[in-house]
Amino acid sequence: MMINELKMTETKTISWTELEMLVNDLKKKHTNKGLTDLETKILKGIFDDKTYRDLAKEIRQEEQSIKNAAYDLFKILSEQTDEKIGKSNLITALARYRDNSQTFDHNNKPQTQQSDKVFELVIEVDIDDLTPEKIDKINNLIQKIARDNTIKPIMKLKGSIRLFLEGSEDGLQRLADLHQSGELQALLNELKSDDIPEIIVKKAEFTTDAKVIEKAELIKAIREGTIDKTTLRFVDLSGAILIGAILIGAILRGAILIGAILIGAILIGAILRGAYLREADLSGADLRRADLRRANLSGANLSGANLIGAFLSGADLRRANLRRANLRRANLRRANLSWANLRRAILIEADLSEANLSGAKVENAIFIDATGITPEQKQDLIRRGAIFGDTSNDRSKALV
């Protein structure tokens, strides 16, 4: 759906739905009453750049009565925004107010206190791979609609797309109210970018599920660094969004982190033995000397991760993305790397004894001084593009 907009000034444009909602909210604050039908028609006429005369003919009203109603509305809006508002600057003034009110209100009052509640948003959107980038785009839409840039996802779970959000009391309540009135779905679809298909909102409400609330509190405590990191054995953190989390030396043995987003997380020396990290996103994470023995990392994204000296013996890395990962001196004994992406990975001095590399993509992966590889395996890897840095990489000999 294209957003109808006026091309005026450098202020970010505002959609018709946003404008109507914002003016309705401002009038309600002042009079406890929303927009009348006439006021809505006046607002739409101004948005469509119509003159009062054209609008009078269109809605069959006296031009002066339209001007009087517009004057009264402008007076309310001027008082609420602390800016003189008239027909000529209505759009830009309110777009500016909207942008400013996302971080502070116009009376310099502090933003409302963060809610201790957890908000559940269930949406259907035809995206096969809901990447962190797309989650971020959807969250930006939600922040914009709620006029609260503190809203952020705590975790995502499958089954449609279940996002659990934290934010201010007012921002989250606004989302609930908009869903109740049927406006939330319309706003999301009006404001979304073209690379996101139609969004269907199935649920938007504060959750009362005690287990979800407890899990959300745990995730927030990890984010804020207020938790004892030695108490995380076997915890359920599936779908947790822990981008950049600092978990140095954390004991996460047997923890459930399926589908968790740990991009750029610092997990140096962390104990993740036997943890379930299937389809987790650990791209760019620092896992130096981490204990990942017998961990399930099938389908996980470890691209660009630092795994120097990591213990990965017996780990399940089937179809994992290890592109450009640094596995120098990593222990990969009996690890299952079948169909993993190891392109440009560094495996210098890694121990690959009894490791399964069948189907793995190894173009330009560096295996210099790697141990546990049989001569037959070495020649096979060279044929597939691996680099060993000795005379064995003479392809003319390897292909004889």
From TrEMBL:
The chain crosses the membrane at residues 239-272. Pfam families: HTH_VMAP-M9, Pentapeptide, TRADD-like_N. Keywords: Membrane, Transmembrane, Transmembrane helix. It comes from the Bacteria. InterPro entries: 5peptide_repeat, HTH_VMAP-M9, Pentapeptide-BTB/POZ_domain, TRADD-like_N. Residues 132-188 form the TRADD-like N-terminal domain. Residues 16-97 form the vWA-MoxR associated protein N-terminal HTH domain. This is Pentapeptide repeat-containing protein. It comes from Microcystis aeruginosa DA14.
